[in-house]
Fold:
Amino acid sequence: MVCKTGVKYPSEPIVFQSSADSDPEVYRIRGFKPSKTAFVPKTPARERTYIMIKPDGVQRGLIGTIMERFETKGFKLVGMKLAQPGKAMFEKHYADLSGKGFFKGLVEYAASGPVCCMVWEGTNAVKTGRKMLGATKPFDSEPGTIRGDFCIDVGRNVIHGSDSVESANHEINLWFKPEELVDWESHSESWVYE
Ligand code: DAT
Ligand code: MG
Structure:
């Protein structure tokens, strides 16, 4: 499948009718010979994830440093803006946590200053993004992760990242209008992906 930018998207699984149809490239990536009817994607899926630098990250001048990590990793920026939308938006964004004792404080903190909203695209962008963020509690975040390197308190943990493809799609739709996302072709494409 070829997307608008001409980049090949491996969204359609390969169906093996017989071992003769099997693709050696799949063996190399997966490390095993697929069964006759196995559904094996040729490469992992390209995804988009919603990453947001919270008010503490913005105030502390960490936007550039954090963006650099995603950019140098090889992910492609497809949307970015600074916003200060107010509490109602964060009540929606954090709706799954509305029953938690820290919810009120979380919403107040998130709405207290500008946030930097971004959409990054790439293979496994959601899970990799979470790894780059580090654990929710900075004490548990490994050094080398964003939270591990730049913060101490869970209530000031600098950054948000989608935790699944489903929540990424929901959060991208919540924060961005379709026309705010730019589908562009990176000249690094063939230097980042085989
Ligand atoms: P994450 O941001 O890693 O996805 P989450 O979705 O469980 O974590 O929680 C959202 C944010 O809420 C988190 O980044 C910081 C805050 N938070 C989570 N657990 C907390 C706690 N026990 N006390 C205070 N704030 C907390
Ligand atoms: Mg979360």
